[in-house]
Amino acid sequence: MTSQDISSTVQGSLEGSIYSCISLEKLSGGTANYVFRGVLAKPLEEDGSKTVVIKHTPPYVAAHPDFKLTATRCVSHQLTPFYLCGGILSELLHEVVFSILCIQDISSRSMILTWLISF
């Protein structure tokens, strides 16, 4: 699968949900998974977020597709909260069929971003 195919699959799997995106931007890093920033078709009602971070876990290592790795590793994220800077980074959606995880996008939270960059 090409990067565009994966992006289309991820975007298509979120269609019709509150996390439906009008575009995806592939983020750097993520050797085992594909990580995107999605621009939401409609801001989230609960907090007005306009973007989310989307993690897709394929049945192989994203950076090395010939290296097979079970996609069930995505399930462990459902059981473990994301901790960051003494707070919890909320898991917004865990979609098992396509191994997709949507989490809060903290890129616009300059205080946390400044703290992370300082290291």
What is the helix content?
10-25%
Any idea how many domains? 1
Q: What letter string, H or E per element, gives the SSE order?
A: HEEEEEHEEEEH
The percentage of residues in β strands lies in: 35-45%
- What do the pLDDT scores average to? 75
Annotation, overall tally of beta strands: 9
Under CATH at level 1, the class stands as Alpha Beta
Query: Any idea of the CATH topology?
Result: Phosphorylase Kinase, domain 1
Number of helices: 3
Assign an overall shape.
globular
Structural class estimated from helices and strands: alpha+beta
Q: C-alpha Rg, in Å?
A: 14 Å
> How does the major sheet shape up?
5 strands, antiparallel
List the strand order in the largest sheet. Answer: 1-2-3-9-8
- Segments where pLDDT lies below 50 for 5+ residues? 77-91
N→C terminal distance: 36 Å
CATH superfamily grouping = Phosphorylase Kinase, domain 1
Identify the CATH architecture.
2-Layer Sandwich
What does this structure look like?
The protein has a single domain, classed as Phosphorylase Kinase, domain 1 (2-Layer Sandwich). Mean pLDDT is 75; it is low at 77-91. The termini are far apart. The chain has helices at residues 3-14, 75-79, 110-117; strands at 21-26, 34-40, 51-56, 60-61, 64-68, 82-84, 87-89, 91-95, 100-104. The strands form 3 sheets. Strands 1-2-3-9-8 form a 5-stranded antiparallel beta sheet. The protein is an alpha+beta fold and 119 residues long. The chain is built from 3 helices and 9 strands. 21% of the residues lie in helices and 35% in strands.
